[in-house]
Amino acid sequence: MTNLIIKYFPKVNITCYSGLFLNYIACHIMMTISALFLYRGLSFKDENHQQQTLEEKKESKKSFRKIFGKSLIQFEVLFVYVLSAVGGALLGAYQSFLFLHLKEIGSTQTVMTLSISIAAAAGIFGYFFSAKIIRFFGGPLRSIFVSLIFFGARCLGYALSPNGWILLIFQPLHILSYALFLTSGIQYMKETSPLIVITSMVSLFQTMFEGVGVLVGSSIGGVIFKNYGGRKLYLIFAFFALFWTMILGVYVFMIKKKRVNKTKEDNN
After folding, report:
1. Which residue among 40, 149, 237, 245 is least crowded, i.e. fewest CB within 10 A of its CB?
2. Is the model's pTM score more than 0.85?
3. CATH number at residue 152
């Protein structure tokens, strides 16, 4: 659908950015409506919960807010939320400007369609094998580190590809960039959050990733694309991914590892 917008909107003297934005809004509205019907009538309350008194419900809400606030102010959790926005910015560059970049380098409609199909297929495999991949890399944080590497590699590949057919080579990296990043972030929140706030912590992660991050990445990316084109856009985002990969690497392999070793020594 996006490639059709890119193809036809300029003919009516309306920038394709407007079409992409309207398409994005329309899709999210339809997803929201679909979710309302999908989860209608679904309840997680048990009989004991339904029999709670008003005072017990108030205490439960206070307890939730206290636990949620305590979970949220931890340094590592906040760091992961920052990383979720970083990943979202990289995702925004991919979602919003890939077809524009493909058009810029003279790609056909077939290439545009294949680019989405290959990425979607890779994403399916990524979700299916996500637990095994995360275990293979040594946990959620290390998997996020790996996914940022592949986000950067993907952006660099986009920047250096001479044509759309070569660019398609980098689309299978969707499995180790977007899919791995999303599943690793959710897994991290599930492992580190108390049961009562897991849903809220995961929802906040997804909001930062696919909401705030994508919005920031698309906004900044639009300015870069307009002034410098797709190649420089993806080159800049490749270095952006590399920068945050190094920061996360320092934390995971130096600071956190040192902290874990010290804890083990104290216990011994």
Report:
1. 40
2. no
3. 1.20.1250.20
